Each structure stands twice: as structure tokens, then as C-alpha cells.
Amino acid sequence: MSEHKLWYKVAANEWNEALPLGNGAIGAMVFGNVKRELIQLNEESLWYGGYRDRHNKDAKEYLPRIRSLLWEGKIREAEKLMAMSMFAVPDGQRQYSVLGDFIIENYGQEGIVTDYKRELDIEKAICKMSYKVDGKRYEREMFCSNPDNVLIVHIKGEQKLELSTYIDRWKYVDEKEYHENYMTLHGLSGGEGGIYYAYSLKVQNIGGTLESVGGRLYVKDADEVILYLTAATDYKVEEPKKVCEMHLEEVSKQSYETLLNRHIVDYQSLYNKMNLEIQGEESNLQEDDEQKLEINVLSTSERLERLKANKEDIGLINLYFNFGRYLLISCSRKGGLPATLQGIWNSSWQPPWDSKYTININTQMNYWPAEKCNLSECHLPLFELLEKMKPHGEETAQKMYGCEGFVAHHNTDIWGDTAPQDMWMPATIWPMGAAWLCLHIWEHYMYTLDEKFLKEKYHLLKSAGDFFKGYLMEDEEGHLVTGPSTSPENTYILPSGESGTVCIGPTMDNEILYELFTAIIKGGKILGIESSELQKFKEMRSRLLPLRIGKYGQIMEWREDYEEVEPGIAMCLNYLGFIQVAKLV
């Protein structure tokens, strides 16, 4: 049975059913419709607007008063003051945007459709559709090449092809240019200070005719059609429009087979770096008629339905694991940007949580498989984002807390914005984002033992740790604790009955700091840094609040053994943090 293919007997009805392609920069969601193919597009650096200084000018002044209120147990008063003095202005960072749609209209295919199949071969990163119309077979094959930075669609059939194709961005596009065999859309995303983008589509027909008609590229009587699409922004290059058009001109001079083979070799250089096969006896493989049923003749959706019915399918577990590796390779490549909340795939102008980087667990989760799956190269974009965050994080540390080093809260964007995000008390004021994210530097080193890398990125670890030299406070027992902070997205109840989310010294912070200080100390020794420079981190680590066991036998989430407002619904964020950092000891 195949553990490297997803396949379906029908086209996608909505976005979540479409098949994802990606080369790290360009993302495509393929619907697989017969008459009107829709491929929804993204480009990793196309975001709305530009960087803004959002720091609340009153944060540092009111920080001591907020801390006093928290020590006194006056949670509501502290949170009220925090909402006014510490939340950013404006409260939101920038958001990931949409590139547009790529449409292929097929003519002469209005008859009866049979033998439909769409599949995603995750061993080669190729999407295919095949079907018959009135007995005539048609095929589409497409892939998104990293070495050539292009999305390619190859169409052929047993009958002459007639189709029109175009790209669109609806009312959000600024300029459209049409030429004999290509078209380009370009403009500015987010107004002044925003990102300038361009994306181009070129058509190559084998046989038949090609002309530009009313904003469409129209092909008639062709034996085969090859479509090339690329995109660029001025976040990466100076002249996106020129780059796109020149690039397609060069790429289209090469044979389809050359481009396809180069894509497969590049992709498999990562995908084939590991293999995991879970084995088990396949049972319950019989239908009601007691006829033996081979799983590999079932579509992916049919296999999922069987699994819901409590029928075993070990191969589907293997496929699920391989699909996760496929997605990471497809959305996070060396030299590019790291995976957002949705990788590089997003169809909404206002995506959930802006589809940016939520760094109180989501971004970390994206990269937990990187080193374990031998995909260290896919981890590299995350470290370059940390480099962008550092100067902004130093500004945040000074303006909000009067501290050295760099700090980030629970979100960032492609500009490395580190000021608080949103106006949500259970998560907004949580100064551990940079500390936790920097632990990925140490994890990468431990898997690769690359001292050159450690030397280049050690300054990020050190700077994230330096912030806490000024930020940590002593509690009544002499332990060093954070505050104001949260145990993200959970609410506790004081003995007085008052509930709150903001607190001093949540366990999650202590665990992250223990691992951060340990990484700084161990990394410093490897790099030959004087022990006197590391002594402060050793001292701070020794004074962190230790783990404590609560009345229910649980690891206490806060300094005190508080009750939770709604036990069990808090996403177990701190425990996920424990799992992550435990691997680093």
C-alpha cells in the first residue's frame, strides 16, 4: 500500500480539501476541478503593510506599580493598569496576505466525466489529476520547484486542448499587464510603506494557437500546454516585476523533463534523508460482503472513514507522518522565511491570528520535527527571523522594561516585531517569546554539532538571557521569578475568590529560563567564553523557583497551588513546554 500518496476520487469542494504544493516561497492549493481549475496562491514575503513602532510609551513608568499590585494579590487592579499602560498602540502586528488565484478554463470538456482521480505524490512533491470526458483521457501534472522558483502545470489529453488561463487578485490588484504569451500582476500591499509584489504567468503551447484575449491567454487546438508561474516582492528583490518576467523567459527555454527532474532531485535530497515505517497486523479489512479489501485501492478519504469506524490502518499513520515532513519541506527552505501558523498556505485577507508567528507554542511546534526528521536545513529560516527580531527586541526591552538584552512577547511577524500583540490578558503580556524561540538554536547545535553555527548564533541566546538579568525579581523565599507574566491562556483562582491570568513566576517561565541559562552556559564553554561571563547565568539558574507538586499530584502551574477556573481546558501549554525543554537537558 502507498504511504507516500494522498489521492481522491472527487475534486475539492472547499479550500481545506485542496492539495498543497510549495517550494518554500510559493504556495499553491490545487482544487482539481475538471472544467475550471482553481489554484490559490501565496508568496511567503507578501504581507500587509510594513513595520511600525507600537510600543506603549507608558509601560516602563507603570511597571513598578503593576508589580506591587501583583505582589499584593490585587489582580484586577494590576490587569486594568496593564491594559492601559502595557498593551501596544496599535495593538496588532502585521498580517500575512494573499497572492491571488490562478485559473484554468477548459473548453470542450462538458460531457460525462469518468475515472476521475487527483493525487499528491509526497515522495516527489508532484500533484496529478486524470479523468475521462466522453471516453477521452486528460491529464494534468504540476509541481512547485525550489531550484527554479516556479510553479509549473503540464496539461495533455487524447483530444486537442482548448483552454484559457489567467491570474487574478480581484479588487486588491493595482496593475495588470497582458502580452502575447504572458501576463503580470503587480502593486503595493498595504499602502505607503507596504510591500511591492509582482507575479507572472507564461503559457507555452505545443501545437495549435495562442493569443491574448480580454485579459486571458487563450490556447486552441494544442497537443500539450505548459504553464509557468512565479512571484516576487521587494522584501527580497529590488524590481519584482522585472525579476518575474525575466525569470519566466529563462525557465521556459528549458525542457519540461529537465525542470521536473531538477525539482525531484532537489526535493528528494531532503525527503529521503529519513524513513520511518510503523508496522502492524492489518485487521478488519473486509466489507459487509466479506470480500477481502486491499487498502491501497481506497482513496485517502475512504481510509479516513474506515479509521473513524475503528478499523486499523497502520499505513495511514505512516502516510500522516510523511505528509508532515512534506509540509515542512514545502514551506520552510534555506534562504527563505520560516513557516507561519499556516505554513505558506492562506486564502484569507484576514486569516486566523493573522497567520503570522505565534511564539508561545505554535511556531515552536512547527519546528519540533525539523531536527528529529533530519531536516536541519528546514530549521534555518527560523534563526534568520530571530536575527530580525533582536534589534526590535532590544528596543522593546529598553522601552517597556528598562532592561538590556532582547525580549519578545507571544507573537512576531516578518519584520521581527516584538511589542505585545492583541489586547488579551491571558497571553499578551508574556515576555518569554524570544527566550523559548532561541532554544531552537541550541537544539540545532545538539543535533548537528556545528560549532560555526553556534558561534554565529550564540549572541542571540546570550542577548535573550541578558534581558532577565534586569527583569527577574526576588520572591519572599529568595527565588528569582518573572512578572508580570502569564501561564498562557489559563486562569487561576486566589484564596480570596478573585480570579486572574496575569501573575508572578509561572512554572512555564521557570522551565524555559532554566533551559535558556543552561544553553548559554554550555554553549559558552564550547566556544571558550570566560567562565566569569557565564557566572551570572549560573547564579540566576541556581535561584530559579524549583518545580513543585500540587495537591492533585500535578506539577504546579503557578507559584501557589491555585485552583483553575475551568480545569482541563487550558491547552496544557506549560506541559508541552516541559516536554520541549526536557529534551534539551
Description:
The chain has about 575 residues and is an alpha+beta fold. The protein contains 13 helices and 23 strands. The protein has helices at about 60-70, 75-85, 240-250, 255-270, 300-310, 315-330, 360-370, 375-400, 435-450, 450-470, 505-525, 530-540, 575-580, and strands at about 5-10, 20, 25-30, 35-45, 100-105, 115-120, 125-135, 135-145, 150-170, 175-180, 180-190, 195-205, 210-215, 215-235, 355-360, 410, 475, 480, 485, 490-495, 500, 500-505, 565. Strands 1, 2, 3, 4, 5, 6, 7, 8, 9, 10, 11, 12, 13 and 14 form a 14-stranded antiparallel sheet that branches. It has a 3-stranded antiparallel sheet with strand order 21-20-23. Strand 17 and strand 18 (about 480) form a beta hairpin. Helix 8 (about 375-400) runs antiparallel to helix 9 (about 435-450) and helix 8 runs parallel beside helix 10. It is elongated. The model is unreliable at about 285-290 and about 570-585 (pLDDT under 50).
Summarize the structure.
By secondary structure, the protein is an alpha+beta fold.
Number of domains: 2
Q: Terminal Cα separation, in Å?
A: 39 Å
Shape annotation: elongated
Approximately how much beta-strand content do the residues carry?
Answer: 15-25%
What is the CATH topology assignment of the largest domain? Glycosyltransferase
Oligomer: single chain
Cα Rg: 27 Å
Structural class: alpha+beta
Number of helices in the DSSP assignment: 13
Q: Low-confidence runs (pLDDT<50, min 5 residues)?
A: 283-292, 569-585
The counted number of beta strands is 23
**CATH architecture descriptor of the largest domain:** Alpha/alpha barrel
CATH class of the largest domain, named Mainly Alpha
Helical residue percent band? 25-40%
Return the average pLDDT rounded to an integer: 93
Major beta sheet, specifics? 14 strands, antiparallel
